[in-house]
Design brief:
Layout: E1 4-9, E2 14-19, H1 25-34, E3 39-45, E4 52-56, E5 74-75, E6 82-88, E7 100-106, E8 114-115, E9 118-119, E10 122-130, H2 132-145, E11 148-155
Antiparallel strand pairs: 1-2, 1-11, 2-10, 3-4, 3-11, 4-7, 5-10, 6-7, 6-10, 8-9
Protein name: DUF3830 family protein
Length: about 160
Amino acid sequence: MTRQFFLEYENGPRAIADLHDHLAPVTCETLWNALAKPQTMDAMHAIYAGPEVMVGLPEEAQNFDPEAVPAENQQVIPGTGDLMWYYQRPYQMGGLPFEFWEIGVFYAPGARTLGPLGWTPVSIFATISEGLKEFAEASYQIRLTGIKKLTIGRVE
C-alpha cells in the first residue's frame, strides 16, 4: 500500500500526497519518521522557483542527520504537485550563516529549482494525488497575502 502524507492549511484546503518509496526510499523513510507527529509550519512562497510554497522542518522533527540522506530522484524541473526535500548547510548558499531543512510543494506548471546560485537539484519524494486544485489556489494566495500555517503529517 502506498504511504501518504496530508498537507493542510489552517482554515483551508487539505491535499493528500503519495510517497515515492520506489524512487526515493531513504528520503521517504526519513521524512516518514520525522513526521510521525504532524508538524505545523509557516509556509512561504518561493522567490526564484516559481509556483512553490516551502516550509522549514521544525527543530522537533529534525531527528536525523540531513547529510546522511542521499540525493534521490533529483530534479530541477519538478512536476505539478511534486514535493521536494532539500537541506541547505550553513554558509552553502551565498554565505548565508543558517541551515534550512526544506520541504517544498510545487503547485502549478512552470516550477524550477533555480536559486540565487543557479540550478539546485532537489529530491522529489512525493506527489499530490488528491485535492491539488484547491491546494494550489490557497498556495497561490500566499504570494499575495503572505505566510500561512501548513500542517504536514502521515495519513494512517
